[in-house]
TrEMBL record:
<comment type="function">
    <text>Invertase that cleaves sucrose into glucose and fructose.</text>
</comment>
<comment type="similarity">
    <text>Belongs to the glycosyl hydrolase 100 family.</text>
</comment>
<dbReference type="InterPro" id="IPR024746">
    <property type="entry name" value="Glyco_hydro_100"/>
</dbReference>
<dbReference type="Pfam" id="PF12899">
    <property type="entry name" value="Glyco_hydro_100"/>
</dbReference>
<keyword id="KW-0326">Glycosidase</keyword>
<protein>
    <recommendedName>
        <fullName>Alkaline/neutral invertase</fullName>
        <ecNumber>3.2.1.26</ecNumber>
    </recommendedName>
</protein>
<dbReference type="InterPro" id="IPR012341">
    <property type="entry name" value="6hp_glycosidase-like_sf"/>
</dbReference>
<dbReference type="InterPro" id="IPR008928">
    <property type="entry name" value="6-hairpin_glycosidase_sf"/>
</dbReference>
<keyword id="KW-0378">Hydrolase</keyword>
<dbReference type="GO" id="GO:0004575">
    <property type="term" value="F:sucrose alpha-glucosidase activity"/>
</dbReference>
<dbReference type="GO" id="GO:0005987">
    <property type="term" value="P:sucrose catabolic process"/>
</dbReference>
<keyword id="KW-0119">Carbohydrate metabolism</keyword>
<dbReference type="GO" id="GO:0033926">
    <property type="term" value="F:endo-alpha-N-acetylgalactosaminidase activity"/>
</dbReference>
């Protein structure tokens, strides 16, 4: 969440609570049971099979032949230099950047009462003085957490999961309005009081963020990370604690609450996710829908059926998953054929027989889309609501849709085809465009409210965000398209460290360091490390990927090969 400025998060008084009041630290004394068998699980084996079949004809040059020999019991072992040991298991020479990136990542670590708790958003020492952006953002911490898990350092992730759970328990208010119980913070800060010798936490649930938007994505990331921790360590005891089970239930209750909805997608405010400023991502943005879907699936894996209150919620999750996957795969999916169908839509249809269910008016299809849409490839559009289809392409939502198997295998392949076909537009000189294309002129005025930070091809408006490379790489591994990941990582490697790990790049091709980009942005560093570690040891993918659930197969499947 966009905070008040570097280092300026002044917590609201209500948020200042000494966490002694909620002491869960006893849980930290349980060392995780490292389950060496974990990578022999069905999930991972089927993942291996998936690779092998997906690699056919993709020119991966026998890379996957060595998949089994790359398998490393116990996961990434910590090396003495702080770089992942996995790099030594392969013929790869570890890239010189990797060691520097680990050093930088460790510099961003923040401790709470003597234990590392998270990574702050940026440690910028380029100007001589250290300019910290010292909030720990929940969404920013995810790639850091994955890097630590992959490197065999799960304790920090466990600490983070537990402390954020405590924050969820706080009373959250904006003026006289009380926020939902399940809400997780966008960010928190460790306040050090050297005189009293105590550390306290100050959290922001949206009440101090610019625009006062609650981060709908935080709770979803928290559940996804809890599953990643469980999967990677084999330690089920954390997720099974009554506290974690309750935390999951609260998040689920909040997003499964009944209202006036006619769609299974989750209605939300503009700027409630990674794009945390007004950018026309209100309604049913793909980023939130994909994360919602993934966290529903993760919650189902983590909730204990026998625990009180869980059965009912698990049934609601299953029902929602069915409806959500059908809705997304049917109405959000766009490829050449479907674009042609929309182009010829009749409007003003009433009753159950309507084809154009949302009354999308063909004249609202933007001109750029006709050229952008390749004959091979497709993607989930940005948003679908009554008479409004946001045709923009968003990176995070599409990659998460692949990882969560919200995309069918055909759709996942088509998303990768699109990236390949539209390389210049979506990757350019720095992976990866947060969205495509930029909005400008009158539309920019209307949609962003004349936001000077989000001018065309900058920041959230068509800027390029290096952090997204971990999601792209994960999606590439899942679909067996390693060449795409390698090409993208090569581009990033050529510039990232030289440019001091900026937060984002500007321009149509992403050639320029972003206008207001902070340097030494932690998630740019962590995103790179995670991408590298996953490429070197693809079994890491298991912690962030879910296999296709055949029971959720849609009646209607469209893909590049779909024929009307
Ligand atoms: C910006 C980004 C947001 C991120 C935050 C901290 O506000 O839009 O996604 O969490 O910075 O890096």
């Amino acid at each position: 969440m966009e905070a008040a400025g570097a280092g300026a998060a002044t917590p609201s008084h209500a948020s200042m609570v000494d966490t002694d009041d909620f002491d869960l630290s006893r849980l930290l004394n349980h060392r995780p049971r490292i389950n060496v068998e974990r990578q022999r699980s069905f999930d991972d084996r089927s993942l291996g099979d998936l690779y092998l079949s997906a690699m056919d004809g993709r020119g991966a040059g026998g890379y996957m032949d060595s998949y089994e020999s790359m398998y490393s019991p116990g996961g990434g072992l910590r090396s003495l230099t702080g770089t992942p040991a996995s790099s030594t298991r392969l013929s790869f020479e570890p890239h010189p950047l990797v060691g520097d990136a680990w050093d930088a990542l460790r510099r961003s670590l923040v401790c709470f009462r003597g234990q590392p708790l998270g990574t702050i958003a940026a440690v910028d020492s380029s100007s001589g003085e250290v300019l910290n952006y010292d909030q720990v953002f929940v969404r920013d911490f995810v790639p850091s957490a994955l890097a630590f898990l992959m490197n065999g350092e799960p304790e920090i992730v466990k600490n983070f999961l537990l402390k954020t759970l405590l924050l969820q328990g706080w009373e959250k208010r904006i003026d006289r309005f009380k926020l939902g119980e399940g809400a997780m913070p966008a960010s928190f800060k460790v306040l050090k009081d050297p005189k009293r010798g105590v550390d306290t936490l100050a959290a922001d649930f949206g009440e101090s963020a610019i625009g006062r938007v609650a981060p709908a994505d935080s709770g979803f990331w928290w559940i996804i990370l809890l599953r990643a921790y469980t999967k990677s360590t084999g330690d089920h005891t954390l997720a099974e604690t009554p506290e974690c089970q309750k935390g999951i239930r609260l998040i689920m209750n909040q997003c499964l609450a009944e209202g006036f909805d006619t769609f299974p997608t989750l209605l939300c405010a503009d700027g409630c996710c990674m794009i945390d400023r007004r950018m026309g991502v209100y309604g049913y943005p793909i980023e939130i829908q994909a994360l919602f879907f993934m966290s529903l699936r993760c919650a189902l894996l983590l909730l204990k059926p026998e625990a009180e209150g869980n059965k009912d919620i698990m049934e609601r999750i299953v029902t929602r998953l069915h409806a959500l996957s059908y809705h997304m795969r049917t109405y959000f999916w766009l490829d050449f054929q479907q674009l042609n169908v929309i182009y010829r839509f009749k409007t003003e249809e009433y009753s159950h027989t309507a084809v154009n269910k949302f009354n999308v008016i063909p004249e609202s299809i933007p001109d750029w889309l006709f050229d952008f849409m390749p004959s091979r490839g497709g993607y989930f559009v940005g948003n679908v609501s009554p008479a409004r289809m946001d045709f923009r392409w968003f990176a995070l939502g599409n990659c998460v849709a692949i990882l969560a198997s919200l995309a069918t295998p055909e759709q996942a392949g088509a998303i990768m085809d699109l990236i390949e076909e539209r390389w210049e537009d979506l990757i350019g000189e720095m992976p990866l465009k947060i969205c495509y294309p930029a909005i400008e002129g009158h539309e920019w005025q209307n949609v962003t409210g004349c936001d000077p930070k989000n001018t065309r091809w900058s920041y959230h408006n068509g800027g390029s965000w290096p952090v997204l490379i971990w999601l792209l790489t994960a999606a590439c591994i899942k679909t067996g398209r390693l060449k795409i990941a390698r090409r993208a990582i090569d581009l990033a490697e050529a510039r990232l460290a030289r440019d001091s790990w900026p937060e984002y790049y500007d321009g149509k091709l992403g050639r320029y360091v972003g206008k207001q980009a902070r340097k030494h942005q932690t998630w740019s560093i962590a995103g790179y490390l995670v991408a590298k570690m996953m490429l070197e040891d693809p079994s890491h993918l298991g912690m962030i990927s879910l296999e296709e659930d055949k029971a959720m197969n849609p009646v209607l499947k469209r893909s590049a090969s779909w024929i009307v």
